[in-house]
Design a protein that fits this description.
The complex is a heterotrimer of chains A (406), B (250) and C (637). With 406 residues, chain A is an alpha/beta fold. Chain A has 13 helices and 14 strands. In chain B, a hairpin with a 2-residue loop joins strand 4 and strand 5. Classes of the chains: A alpha/beta (406), B alpha/beta (250), C mainly alpha (637). Chain B: This is ABC transporter ATP-binding protein.
C-alpha cells in the first residue's frame, strides 16, 4: 500500500515547493542563475560569492543593464555532477534564469556545460580549469572565464625553461587537473628544452598525500628541479615535509596556483621561498582597475580579496557586458548572448580582456612571481602579469582542438 | 539394516581427545539417546554426524552410504532432519511459510520464480502442521510463538525433508515438564508411524529414561555403555561417572 | 664493503629500507584512528561513521589550543586536551544520541552516526571557518636525523614509536584491568555482559569515550604534519575501516599489524615510482589511490575475518524481528495504480509545475537504486557498503555504449545493465562467502577498486571528469519522454523486486537471513541464493545507473563513490529496512530533503543531519516502520 505513496509524497512536496517559491516578477530583472560547490570548496567560494555580490551591487547602483536590474540566484551544486544538473534544471525551469554561471570542479563544470548545450542555455563557466571545457568537449553555449590549466602551465614556461635544469621531478594530485598539468608541462618543456629528463613522477591521491614517502621518493631521484601541482592541505603537508627533510635544498621549484592567497596564506611563515608560482599578489598590483576593485572590496567587506573574489567579480562583470551587448542587439536570449560573447570586451580587476570567438576562452591572465616570506606571511615578489592571450594557441590550432563545437 | 551407522569416530582439539573411536548405530523407528557429562564429547559427536564438524578419522554411514564429511545442506538432502538446542526457525515468516520453505528446499524448488510461493505445497505444509499439532497457528508469525510451539514448528520443518533420520540436540531444553513429555511423546509417535530413526542428546534424565528405546553413554570421548534404559541405569560404570563426577574435562 | 659503495651498487635497497622506516610513522597515524573504531565496534557493534569526525575535531582543537601557551607545554598540553575533549564529546554523543536507539534494528546506529558526521562537519565550518589551519610544529622535534644517507624527521621517529606505545598501553588495559576484561568479554560475547550483571549503559559510554579520545589524540598528533581542514573526517574514515577490518574487527594488535601492512604497501608503491614491465611503463605511485582497498580485498578473500579476527557472534537481535511480508490487498493495488497514474501525469500539469518532473526523475532513480540495495539488505540480510559499484557499472556501461560504441539509447541501456549484472555476478561470487560487517567491507573494497579503475582509465571512462554528451535519442530526449521512460523502468523494477520477495526464491532468501543454520539444515542453498540476490540487486542498481547517465547527460566517477553507497544505505535505513516500501519512502524523503535544504541554508549538511536524527529518534524502524506503527495504533483505538 505504502510503497507508491512515497513518490506521490515526493512529487507533492516538490510541487508545493515549486508553488511557494514561484517568484513574483515585478521589476523584470535580468536573472543570473549561479551554482557552485559552496559546501565542498568554502575557502575559495566564500570570497567568490562576495566578489559577485560586489559586482551586482555596483551594476545595480549604476542603473542596471538597459534599465533592468541584475538579480543573482545562487545555489549549491552539491559538489557533484548529478546534483549540479538537477540544480541547473531547477534554475532554468523554475527560476527561469536568463543565463547560467558558476561551478568550480572540472567534472561539474563539464556536466553543466553539457546540460547547457542540450537545453540551449547560455553558460559562463567561472572557475573550472580543465582544458576540455573549451577544447575537446567545448560547445557553442559554453564560455569560460578563468585561465585554463594549459594557460597556467604555459605562463610558467619562460621561467622553467630559463632555469636550464636537466633533471625534473613532477608531483601532482592524481586526477584530471593534475594529470593534464603534468602532461602539458612535460610537453611544453620538452619542446623548449629537448635535453630535459623527467626523473620522478609522483601521482598522489587528492587530499590524502602521504607526504613523508612522497617527498623522500622525490629526493631519492636527485632532481635539480621540481614541478608541483599540489594545492590545499596536500601542499601544506608537502612543504612542511620537504623543509624538515631538507629535500628541496638547491632545487628549483615551479608550482601551479601556489601564489593564490587561498593556498599561500594558510602556510604563514612556513611558505616556501623562491618558488616560481602563478597566483594573485593583491598587495602588489599597480593596475588602476585593480586599485578600484581593491578599494571597493575592502570597503564593502573589511578584508582583502582572494583570487576567488576576483573570479566572482569578473564573472558578473562579464555577464553584465554580455547582457548589455546582447540587449543592444535586440534581446538576451541564448543565441544573442553567444553572439555577444564572441569577442566580448570586458574590464575586470586585472584590466581589459576578451572572450575569444574561436574557443570561447577569456584572455584574463594571471600573475607569475617568486614566493618569499614577509612579516610572517607568504607573498609573491617580482610578480608580472601574463596576459592570457599571450599563452593561448592560435585560432587555427584551436579549431582542431574543438571537434565537438561548431 | 540400520539407518545411521557411526564407525570409530575420533576427533581431537589440540592435544585434547574429544572423541576416541566411538561406534554405534540407530535403526528405523528407534529412539536413541546420547548422554554423558559435560565435556564428554556429546556435542562433538553430534556435530560430526550432522556435518558441522569434520572427524579426524572414522566413518558415518546413512542407509549404508558413506556420508562422512558431507555438509549440513547435503545431509539434509540425504534425508537427515534436525532440531537445534536453541530452536531455529524463520522468525519473520508465518508458521505455514516456514514449513512451505522447508518443503520447497527439500524438493529443490527454491529457484522457482514464476509463481508466488504462498500457493505452493500449501496442503502438504498444512498436513505437517496437523501432524505436529500446529495447524491452528499456521498464520502466526514464527517470532511470536511460545517456545514450546517453536519447538514443534521446528519439528514440522525437520519432517519436511521426509527424513529417515532425525537428529535432535537437547530437544526439550528450556521447556517445562509437561511440555517436555508431550513433545517427546509426539516424536515417539512420529518415529513409530514414519519408521524414523531418532538420535537425540539430552540432559533431562526423565526424558531419556522415559522415552528412549536405547541409551548410549559417552565419557571422556569414549563410549562406555550401550543398552536399554534399564541396562544403562544399572550399569555401575555409568553410575560411577555421573555420581563420582569424574566425567569429561571438568 | 662500505655502505656508500653498497648504496651505489644497489641504490634501491637503502631507498626501500628508508621508505619502510617512513612507513612506520604513517602506520602509527592509521593505527590511532583505527584503534578506537575497533574497540567501539567490538563492544557496541556500532559502525561509527562519525569516528573520522572525532579525529578531525581533535586536530582542530589542538591547533586552536597549542598557540595559547608557547613551547612544549602548549603543544603537548593541546594534544592531551584534544584527546580529553574528544573523550568527553564521545561520552556525550553516546548518552544523548546512541543510547536512545540501541533497540533499533541493526545498522540504525550507523544512520545516526552518519547524521552526526554531517552535523559535526558543519559545526567545524561554523567555529573554525573554511580556511585550512596549519598548527605549530612540535617544539624540539622540528629537525631530522641522518640515516641511510637521508634525513628522517624527528617527529616521524616519535610517531613511529607512539603507535606501539599506545598498542602496549591498550593491551595492558585490556588484559590487566577490570574495565579491559569487561571490554574483551563484551567483544567476545555480548550476552555475557548482561549475565555478569554489569551496567551495560556505563560500559558503552566508557568505551565510546575511550574510542573517541584515542581518535582525538591521533588527530591532534597530526598538528605538526598537516593543516586542520574540513575534508579530514571522511578522508580518514575509509582508512580506519580498512585497518580495522584487515586486522580483524575488535582486535587491537590486528589493527596495528594492518596499519603497518597498509602503510608499507603505500610506501612501497611511492618508492618504486615509475616501473617498466615488458616495455610498458607504469607509475606505481598511482596505486596509492586504492592501495588500502586492494590490501583489504586480498586479505578478506584469503582470511574472511581479517588477520586476527574471529567470526563475530551474531548480535542477537536487540531490535524487533520484522513482521511477515503480506501481499497487497485490493485497496493497496488500487492505490498503487492511482499513484503511478498520478506520477505519469506530473509532466502535463503545466508551467507552474515545470520543476516537479525534474525532481521526480531524481527521486525515481534514487528509488530504484535504494530498492535494489534493499533487496540485498532486507530480504537478503546482507548490508552492502559498495552498492555504488553496480550503479556506476550500469551508468558507465550505458555511457560507454552510447558514446564510444555509438549504440542507440535502448541498446546502450541494455548494455549498461548487462555490464552491471556481469560485475555483480563476478564480485558477488566472492562477496557472498562473507557475512555481516565483513561482507559490508568487502563490498566497499570492491566498489573502491572499481572506482579507482574508472577514475584512472582515461581512454575508456574519461578519467576523473567522466564521459559527456550522452543524451538519449528521441523520443527520450525530451524531459517528458525521459521521465516517463524512467517511471516505467522504476515501476517495473520495483514490481519485479516485490514479486521476487514473494517467490520461492524470496522465501529461501528471507529464510537464510532469519536463520542461516536452520536454512542449511533444511537443505537451502544459502550461498547460491545470496549470490543470485546479489546479481538481482546489482542488475537493478545498474538500471538505476543507466537512467542516471541519460538523465544527467554525463557520468563521472562520483557515481561510484563511497558517498553514493552511503546515500543508498541512508535511504534504505531512513525509509525502513523492514518493509518493501521503506527504500522508496527513504529515497523520496532524502532526495526531496536534500534538494530543499540545499536551497534554504548554507549549513544544509547540518540541517540534513539534524532531520535524519529526528527521524531516527521518532521512528527507530525508519519512516515505513513509523507509519506502520501509527496505522496500527489508529486501528487499535
Amino acid at each position: 500500500m505504502m510503497r507508491g505513496s512515497t513518490l506521490v509524497r515526493a512529487a507533492l512536496i516538490g510541487t508545493a515547493l515549486a508553488l511557494a517559491l514561484l517568484p513574483a516578477r515585478a521589476a523584470e530583472p535580468i536573472r543570473i542563475g549561479e551554482l557552485n560547490s559552496y559546501k565542498a570548496q568554502p575557502a575559495f567560494l566564500e570570497p567568490y560569492r562576495k566578489g559577485m555580490e560586489l559586482a551586482v551591487n555596483q551594476i545595480n547602483a549604476a542603473g542596471g543593464i538597459a534599465g533592468r536590474p541584475l538579480e543573482l540566484i545562487t545555489r549549491d551544486d552539491g559538489g557533484n555532477p548529478g546534483d549540479a544538473v538537477r540544480v541547473a534544471e531547477e534554475l532554468v525551469t523554475r527560476e527561469k534564469v536568463d543565463a547560467l554561471t558558476g561551478t568550480f570542479l572540472s567534472h561539474v563544470g563539464l556536466a553543466v556545460a553539457g546540460y547547457a548545450a542540450k537545453r540551449q542555455v547560455f553558460f559562463l563557466a567561472a572557475e573550472p580549469l580543465t582544458d576540455k571545457i573549451t577544447w575537446s568537449d567545448g560547445n557553442r553555449y559554453t564560455f569560460r572565464l578563468r585561465a585554463s590549466t594549459y594557460m597556467q602551465v604555459a605562463m610558467l614556461m619562460p621561467e622553467a625553461a630559463a632555469a636550464k635544469r636537466k633533471r625534473w621531478a613532477i608531483v601532482y594530485p592524481n586526477y584530471e587537473y593534475g594529470q593534464s598539468a603534468a602532461a602539458t608541462f612535460k610537453k611544453l618543456l620538452s619542446a623548449a628544452q629537448p635535453d630535459v629528463e623527467f626523473v620522478a613522477e609522483q601521482a598522489t591521491p587528492l587530499g590524502k598525500l602521504d607526504a613523508g614517502p612522497v617527498v623522500q621518493a622525490i629526493a631519492d631521484a636527485k632532481p635539480d628541479a621540481v614541478f608541483n601541482v599540489l594545492f590545499g592541505p596536500d601542499l601544506a603537508k608537502f612543504v612542511r615535509e620537504a623543509n624538515t627533510r631538507a629535500a628541496l635544498e638547491g632545487v628549483f621549484v615551479v608550482s601551479l596556483l601556489s601564489g593564490e592567497p587561498e593556498y599561500l596564506d594558510p602556510l604563514k611563515a612556513e611558505a616556501p621561498v623562491g618558488w616560481v608560482v602563478t597566483g594573485y599578489p593583491w598587495y602588489d598590483i599597480v593596475l588602476p582597475a585593480h586599485k578600484a576593485f581593491l578599494d571597493a572590496y575592502q570597503g564593502a567587506y573589511g578584508e582583502p580579496p582572494r583570487l576567488g573574489s576576483v573570479v566572482g567579480y569578473a564573472t558578473i562583470r562579464s555577464l553584465a557586458a554580455g547582457f548589455t551587448k546582447a540587449s543592444a542587439a535586440g534581446g538576451i536570449d541564448a543565441e544573442r548572448m553567444i553572439a555577444a560573447f564572441k569577442g566580448l570586451e570586458v574590464t575586470g580587476p586585472f584590466g581589459p580582456f576578451i572572450y575569444r570567438a574561436s574557443d570561447h576562452q577569456a584572455t584574463m591572465g594571471a600573475f607569475v612571481g617568486t614566493t618569499a616570506v614577509k612579516h610572517g606571511m607568504g607573498v609573491m615578489t617580482g610578480a608580472r602579469y601574463v596576459d592570457g592571450a599571450s599563452v593561448l594557441p592560435s585560432d587555427a590550432e584551436v579549431k582542431a582542438l574543438r571537434p565537438a563545437a561548431d | 539394516m540400520s539407518v545411521l551407522a557411526v564407525e570409530a569416530l575420533s576427533k581431537s582439539y589440540g592435544g585434547v581427545q574429544a572423541l576416541d573411536g566411538v561406534s554405534f548405530s540407530v535403526s528405523a523407528g528407534e529412539l536413541l539417546a546420547l548422554i554423558g557429562p559435560n565435556g564428554a564429547g556429546k556435542s562433538t559427536c553430534f556435530n560430526i554426524v550432522n556435518g558441522q564438524i569434520r572427524a579426524d578419522s572414522g566413518r558415518v554411514r546413512l542407509n549404508g552410504r558413506d556420508v562422512t564429511g558431507a555438509s549440513p545442506r547435503r545431509m539434509a538432502l540425504e534425508g537427515v532432519g534436525r532440531s537445534f538446542q536453541v530452536a531455529q526457525v524463520f522468525g519473520s515468516m508465518t508458521v505455514r511459510e516456514n514449513v512451505q520453505t522447508a518443503l520447497l528446499a527439500a524438493r529443490h524448488r527454491l529457484l522457482g520464480f514464476l509463481r508466488p510461493a504462498a500457493t505452493l505445497l500449501r496442503a502438504e505444509a498444512e498436513a505437517l502442521l496437523e501432524q505436529t499439532r500446529m495447524a491452528a497457528r499456521a498464520d502466526e508469525p514464527a517470532a511470536a510463538l511460545a517456545y514450546g510451539d517453536v519447538k514443534r514448528l521446528e519439528l514440522a520443518m525437520a519432517l519436511a525433508t521426509a527424513p529417515r533420520l532425525l537428529l535432535m540436540d537437547e530437544p526439550t531444553a528450556g521447556m517445562g515438564v509437561e511440555e517436555r513429555l508431550a513433545l517427546m511423546a509426539l516424536v515417539r509417535d512420529l518415529a513409530r508411524t514414519n519408521g524414523l530413526a531418532v538420535l537425540f542428546t539430552e540432559h533431562s534424565m526423565d526424558v531419556v529414561f522415559g522415552h528412549a528405546d536405547r541409551v548410549i553413554v559417552l565419557a571422556r570421548g569414549r563410549l562406555i555403555a550401550d543398552g536399554t534404559p534399564q541396562q544403562v541405569r544399572a550399569d555401575p560404570k555409568v553410575a560411577d561417572i555421573y555420581l563420582g563426577r569424574r566425567g569429561g574435562a571438568e | 664493503m662500505s655502505f656508500e659503495a653498497f648504496a651505489a651498487d644497489w641504490p634501491l635497497v637503502p631507498a626501500l629500507a628508508f621508505q619502510a622506516i617512513n612507513g612506520f610513522a604513517s602506520a602509527s597515524t592509521l593505527f590511532l584512528v583505527a584503534a578506537g573504531l575497533s574497540i567501539i565496534f567490538g563492544v557496541t557493534r556500532i559502525v561509527n561513521m562519525a569516528h573520522g569526525s572525532f579525529y578531525m575535531l581533535g586536530l582542530y582543537v589542538a591547533v586552536t589550543l597549542a598557540p595559547l601557551v608557547p613551547g612544549p607545554l602548549g603543544y603537548w598540553g593541546a594534544v592531551l586536551a584534544a584527546a580529553l575533549v574528544m573523550g568527553l564529546l564521545g561520552a556525550l554523543v553516546e548518552i544523548t544520541v546512541l543510547r536512545r536507539i540501541y533497540r533499533a534494528p541493526e545498522l540504525y546506529q550507523l544512520l545516526a552516526t552518519f547524521a552526526l558526521l554531517l552535523v559535526i562537519n558543519d559545526a567545524a565550518l561554523y567555529f573554525w571557518g573554511p580556511e585550512d589551519i596549519l598548527g605549530p610544529r612540535a617544539p624540539g622535534l622540528t629537525g631530522s636525523v641522518a640515516l641511510l644517507g637521508r634525513r628522517l624527521p624527528e617527529y616521524d621517529i616519535l610517531l613511529a614509536l607512539i603507535g606501539p606505545i599506545v598498542l602496549t598501553v591498550l593491551h595492558i588495559v585490556l588484559t590487566r584491568t577490570r574495565f579491559g576484561r569487561l571490554i574483551r568479554a563484551a567483544t567476545q560475547d555480548r550476552e555475557m555482559v548482561a549475565v555478569l550483571g554489569i551496567n551495560e549503559a556505563l560500559l558503552f559510554t566508557a568505551v565510546f569515550a575511550l574510542g573517541a579520545a584515542i581518535a582525538g589524540f591521533g588527530g591532534a598528533l597530526q598538528m605538526a604534519r598537516e593543516p586542520a581542514n574540513l575534508l579530514i573526517d571522511l578522508g580518514v574514515l575509509g582508512d580506519a575501516f580498512v585497518v580495522v577490518v584487515v586486522g580483524g574487527m575488535g582486535s587491537i594488535r590486528g589493527a596495528y599489524l594492518a596499519a603497518v601492512l597498509v602503510a608499507q604497501v603505500k610506501a612501497l608503491c611511492t618508492a618504486l615510482g615509475i616501473i617498466e614491465i615488458a616495455g610498458i611503463s607504469f607509475n606505481m605511485s598511482k596505486l596509492t589511490l586504492v592501495a588500502e582497498f586492494l590490501v583489504m580485498a586480498v586479505v578478506l578473500i584469503l582470511r574472511p575475518h581479517g588477520l586476527f579476527g574471529r567470526p563475530i557472534p551474531p548480535a542477537h537481535h536487540r531490535g524487533s524481528v520484522e513482521a511477515p511480508l503480506r501481499p497487497l490487498t485490493t485497496t493497496g493495488k488500487f492505490s498503487f495504480i492511482v499513484i503511478i497514474l498520478g506520477l505519469a501525469a506530473l509532466p502535463f500539469l503545466g508551467a507552474a509545475f515545470s520543476y516537479a518532473p525534474v525532481l521526480a526523475l531524481d527521486v525515481l532513480i534514487a528509488a530504484l537504486f535504494a530498492a535494489s540495495l534493499h533487496f540485498l539488505m532486507g530480504p537478503g540480510g546482507l548490508a552492502s557498503f559498495g552498492h555504488a559499484a553496480s550503479f556506476g557499472l550500469g551508468a558507465y556501461g550505458t555511457a560507454f555504449a552510447a558514446t564510444s560504441l555509438g549504440l542507440d539509447t535502448i541498446t546502450a541501456f541494455a548494455f549498461g545493465i548487462a555490464v552491471a549484472a556481469l560485475g555483480a555476478a563476478l564480485l558477488g561470487s566472492v562477496a557472498v562467502r562473507l557475512e555481516g560487517v565483513y561482507f559490508a567491507m568487502l563490498t566497499l573494497a570492491f566498489a573502491q577498486i572499481v572506482w579507482s579503475v574508472v577514475y584512472q582509465w582515461e581512454d575508456v571512462t574519461g578519467g576523473s571528469n567522466g564521459l559527456f554528451g550522452l543524451w538519449p535519442d528521441p523520443p527520450f530526449d525530451s524531459r517528458t519522454g525521459l521521465y516517463l521512460a524512467a517511471l516505467a523502468v522504476t515501476v517495473a523494477g520495483v514490481m519485479l523486486l516485490r514479486y521476487l520477495a514473494f517467490s520461492p526464491f524470496g522465501y529461501g532468501l528471507r529464510a537464510a537471513r532469519d536463520s542461516a543454520m536452520r536454512a542449511e539444515a533444511s537443505g537451502i542453498p544459502v550461498a547460491r541464493l545470496r549470490w543470485l540476490a546479489f546479481i538481482v540487486a546489482g542488475t537493478l542498481g545498474g538500471a538505476a545507473g543507466g537512467l542516471f547517465a541519460f538523465a544527467k547527460g554525463s557520468i563521472s566517477p562520483e557515481a561510484i563513490s563511497v558517498g553514493r553507497s552511503i546515500d543508498g544505505l541512508v535511504m534504505v535505513l531512513l525509509g525502513g529496512v523492514q518493509s518493501l516500501a521503506g527504500p522508496l519512502l527513504g529515497a523520496g524523503t532524502l532526495t526531496v530533503l536534500q534538494d530543499t535544504v540545499m536551497r534554504e541554508t548554507d549549513y544544509w549538511r547540518a540541517l540534513l543531519g539534524g532531520l535524519i536524527l529526528l527521524v531516527v529518534f521518532a521512528f527507530p524502524g525508519g519512516i515505513a516502520g513509523g507509519l506502520a506503527l501509527l496505522a496500527r495504533r489508529g486501528a487499535g483505538r
